[in-house]
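Figure 2 data, in text form.
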Amino acid sequence: MLIHINLHPERGRRRRRGLPAPGPALGRALAPFRDRYLMGAALAVVASCGAVAALHLEQERESAQLEAQVEVAVRDSTRFATVIAARSKAIARRDSLGRELKVIAAIDSTRYTWAHLLDQISGTLPPYTWLSSVTQTSAPPAPPAVTPAKGKAAAPTAAPNGTKPGADSAGAAIRFRVQGLTVDLQALTLFMRDLEASPFVKNVQLAHSEPAQSPVPGSARELTEFTLDAEFETPPREALRTVTISVPVR
C-alpha cells in the first residue's frame, strides 16, 4: 500500500469542490492585484485623472460665464456711449455759461455806481453852493477776467496802475473828487457831513479850499473854492430799493 502526501491542500479542496485549479497564466494575471502598493498607486492615478477632469469642467464653466459678462458689458458700453457724450457736452456748455454769467455779473455790479454817487451828491448839496466838476481819481476798473476752460491757458492781461485784472483799483474802491464854490463855510461843513452820512460815500475829506472871485461880473460877494476827496462805499442790501420792471412781449 502506497502513501500519498498532498503538498497543495488548497488544490485538493478545490478539486474536491469541483473547482478547477488555477493555471500558470491566470496566476500571473492575478499576481499584480495581490500587491497593495501597486493597487494604491493605480487608485491614486485614477483619482488624479478624475480631479483633473473636474477642474477642467469647472474652468470651462467659469470661462463661459466670464465671456457672457464681457458681452453684456460691451453692449452696455455701446448703448451708453451716446449718453456719456451728451452729458460731457452739457457739462462743457454749463461751465461756459457759468463763466459768461460771472462776467456779466461783474459788469452789472458797477453799472449803477455813478448813478448812485451823482444822486447822493446832488441830494446833499446845500443852498448857495454849486459844483464845478466831479471826477474819478482812481483808475477805471479793468474788464473782469474770464476763467479759461480746462486745458486752455489764458494770457495774463495787464490792468492800469498795477491793479489785478477784473478788480477795481485799490481793492474795488472808487475814489472821486468834487470841486465847487460856496458862499458859506457852514454850508460846506454841512455838505461834507451829509455826504459822509450817505450809505454810498465814505472817507470824505477836505483836500483844498481858498478864497475865489465870483463868476458874476461886478459882484463883491466873497466865495470859497473847495475840493473834496471821497470814496464810493458799497451800501447794505436794506439801503437799496428795487423796482420790478415788466416789459410786454408781443
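Caption note: The first helix runs from residue 9 to 17.
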